[in-house]
Amino acid sequence: MSPCLLGCVVFCLLQAGAVHAGVTQDPTFQVVRTGQRTTLKYTQDMYHDSMYWYRQDLGHGLRRIYYSAGVPSSEPGDVPEGYSVSRSNKENFPLMLKSANRSQTSVYFCASSYSTALHGHLLFVQKVLGAHNQAPSTGNLGPLRATCL
């Protein structure tokens, strides 16, 4: 591809505007006292069935905390201790820290995907690559950082 054509394609893509990913994670940074209960909010407006919460700690890859395959289900992941979730509708999947402690200081990620019978080639909206064996695409937010003092 010639440099001129490549520049034209890039310019046209930039003019198209940002793709609306439809994922909101709130707050983006939170400091919590030890023993305090807090909720990390996660909302998506793409009508995805499956929603996920992950945490990433220094020296570890992504570890799934909880996931939901649809309303009202939720299943524990690799590190569910000290957390709870609820799924009362398709759009929301809040993560509650029951009683914050220093071991929960982490970077938290949320993700959503369509559910299929085979769980293959799913649309996966997030800011993290390659988690849960699904084809990733970039969402519109960064990680949430929570510090427990």
UniProtKB/TrEMBL annotation:
Pfam families xref list: V-set (PF07686)
A single GO cellular-component term on record: T cell receptor complex
Q: Which domain of life is it from?
A: Eukaryota
Domain Immunoglobulin V-set: start-end pairs = 30-115
- What does the subunit comment say? Alpha-beta TR is a heterodimer composed of an alpha and beta chain; disulfide-linked. The alpha-beta TR is associated with the transmembrane signaling CD3 coreceptor proteins to form the TR-CD3 (TcR or TCR). The assembly of alpha-beta TR heterodimers with CD3 occurs in the endoplasmic reticulum where a single alpha-beta TR heterodimer associates with one CD3D-CD3E heterodimer, one CD3G-CD3E heterodimer and one CD247 homodimer forming a stable octameric structure. CD3D-CD3E and CD3G-CD3E heterodimers preferentially associate with TR alpha and TR beta chains, respectively.
Where is the signal peptide, in residue numbers? 1-21
Q: Which UniProt keywords apply?
A: Adaptive immunity, Disulfide bond, Immunity, Immunoglobulin domain, Receptor, Signal, T cell receptor
Q: PANTHER family, from UniProt?
A: T CELL RECEPTOR BETA VARIABLE 6-2-RELATED, T-CELL RECEPTOR BETA CHAIN
The residues forming a coiled coil are: none
> Under what name is this protein listed?
Immunoglobulin V-set domain-containing protein
A biological process from GO: immune system process
Q: Give the originating organism.
A: Cervus hanglu yarkandensis (Yarkand deer)
